[in-house]
Amino acid sequence: MSAPVFLADSGLLRPGTVVLDGPEGRHAVSVRRLRPGEEIVLTDGAGAGAYGSVTAAEGKDRLQIAVREVRTEPEPRPRLTVVQALPKGDRGELAVETMTETGVDAVVPWAASRAVTRWKGERAAKSLAKWRNTAREAGKQARRLRFPQVADLASTAEVAQLLRSADFAGVLHEEGSTPLATAELPAVGEIVLVVGPEGGVAPEELELFAAAGAAPFRLGPSVLRTSTAGTAAAAVVLARCGRWN
Questions:
Q1: Region for 15 from its dihedrals, namely left if φ exceeds 0, alpha if ψ lies in -120 to 50, beta otherwise
Q2: Which is nearest to 41 in space by CA: 31, 57, 28?
Q3: Which helix (DSSP H) or strand (DSSP E) does residue 158 occupy?
Q4: pLDDT digits (tens, 9 = 90+) for 22-56
Q5: In angstroms, rounded to a whole number, what is the distance separating the alpha carbons of residues 183 and 169?
Q6: Tens-place pLDDT, residues 176-225
Q7: Do residues 92 and 226 make contact, with C-beta atoms less than 8 angstroms apart?
Q8: Which of 20, 41, 53, 77 lies in the 20 to 30 Å Cα band around 158?
Q9: Which stretches of 15-120 are DSSP H helices?
Q10: Beta strands in 59-130 (DSSP E)
Q11: CA nearest 80: which of 245, 219, 231?
């Protein structure tokens, strides 16, 4: 099994003896029960990773770690962003979790016109914090050094602007005539995919996105839930553009 990953301040990402404490140290000692001699990776979540082994476990929340080397992971090419319409209940966190595990680089929450869920006021702040916490925890679980960014809630106009600046833009839609599996993808730059809500992408939204350069694409013969479509699409794109080679 690969070494577990823990989030750490950039000051700990250096060769030599470092101490991991606080919530991450508590998780390592009391939950993962790491002991001297076991391998561990510390990351800042922005591409840097410190590789080493535990030399001592102290109390319930403190690890001493001998860091052997520090590596910096290059920026992904091409970069994959998924615009995720707000789903019902906790399906948003499920979508963020599985897309993070698959390898998505950024998630943009979208206030689609047909979305049942609405983020307003205090609820918006709490929901966004949940998405970001989910991305962080899933990033560690997936042994990633670079965690996906979860942007602020975007309007339809803001999504259109994002699509306009992309090197490849697509909307996942069951009536799309072109399979995503056959789309011509760039080797570098930015790929942006849009996932609609339970009620689907509204016709006026499709028109606006088409004007911004985003064509409709279908994934396959079956219709996926909004919470799983982004993950399936990410797997297709990452496999085809060489990121999984």
A1: beta
A2: 28
A3: helix 156-164
A4: 999 999 999 999 999 999 999 999 999 999 999 99
A5: 10
A6: 889 999 999 999 999 999 999 998 999 999 999 999 999 999 998 888 89
A7: no
A8: 77
A9: 22-26, 91-102
A10: 62-72, 79-85, 106-110
A11: 231
